[in-house]
Amino acid sequence: MQERVLILGGGVIGLATAFELSRRNYNVTVLEKTTCGGQASGAAAGMLAPFSEIGEDPDDFFKLCLDSLRLYNKWQADVKKISQMNFEYAQSGSLHAVYHDADVLALETRQSWQREWGAEAELISGERLWKMEPLLAKDVKAAMYYPEESHVFAPDYVKALEAACRINGVVIVEQLEQVTVTDWANSITVKAKEGQEFSGDRLIVCSGAWSGELEETFGIRIPVYPIRGQICAYEIPMNQVKHIVYTSQGYLVPKANGTLVNGASEDIAGFKTDVTEKGIARLTNWNKHVFPFLEKETPFHTWAGLRPATQDGFPLIGKIEEAPHVVFATGHYRNGILLSPITAVAIADLLDEKQPYQPLQSCKPERFI
């Protein structure tokens, strides 16, 4: 008999985990309060860029991100094949741009340790840099080029994941508004606001920024907090910008639909997802120093999403010791899209009783006292 798995949350982590479990013959049901991908997942810029995002040291979080990047080529092809849907997966490479000599030295230090992890990192400056990205501001001193870094169009990726799950037999129940775990000590029972009950053998918590609501249920600290990320987008001619471009202030990502996504302005606003003039101004005030042509442009679209941040910056991935049939996969902050393949595979391996993926030692759900 197939094991029945209930997944709380239909964001990218919940759907990716459901997809992988469905390929391993589990009976999976996803329970979503609103609509799948309606929060952080669908609002993401879709960057797959661990070298650019993590410049300090190669800790377990960096290893998670790098391993996930290297799963992506096959993973996204599998999702497309099963879902019979296409989505943008652009192996564009990225440029991490800096403006001062001291920052160039910092890039060189970063390059040194990242090369030990297989990064094809190359410091680019002068005419070669503007040949690669002609419209880049002329006061950029240099940029680190990472050819391996990529991006996906997040809304379409999440839709394809959902479709692949449904085709594989995953039951997805949306618009539940509120769900309560009423039994979890031995078996799993979850009750929705309107009275529907769902039962299973395993529970996987993928509730993102709302995971903290389960602290009282499980009797453990779950310090996951919502961080509002505001983003804007410009309409630009195709191929006007060729790479993901990072600076210390944020990022710009060119999409195949002729838009340039600019993010992200972050603040603490509880569970509010409204867009503010101040938040978008934080983006428009600096992006013209990266691409001067943006000074005369106005964003055609602005939006915000809630990113599930944890107290120590590491996600919560793993079993609860007291009840190993309850598993957490949450708190991925702004790396949910990137980390979706590795999280799904790691969770499925845990359910299959395989040797735990080593970086999960730093992600134990019960590590907070």
From TrEMBL:
Residues 4-350 form the FAD dependent oxidoreductase domain. It comes from the Bacteria. It comes from Halalkalibacter alkalisediminis. Pathway: Cofactor biosynthesis; thiamine diphosphate biosynthesis. It catalyses: glycine + O2 + H2O = glyoxylate + H2O2 + NH4(+). Keywords: Oxidoreductase, Thiamine biosynthesis. Pfam families: DAO. Gene3D superfamilies: D-Amino Acid Oxidase, subunit A, domain 2 (3.30.9.10), FAD/NAD(P)-binding domain (3.50.50.60). SUPFAM superfamilies: FAD-linked reductases, C-terminal domain, FAD/NAD(P)-binding domain. The keyword Oxidoreductase applies. InterPro entries: FAD-dep_OxRdtase (IPR006076), FAD/NAD-bd_sf (IPR036188), Gly_oxidase_ThiO (IPR012727). This is glycine oxidase. Its EC number is 1.4.3.19. GO terms for molecular function: glycine oxidase activity. The gene is thiO.
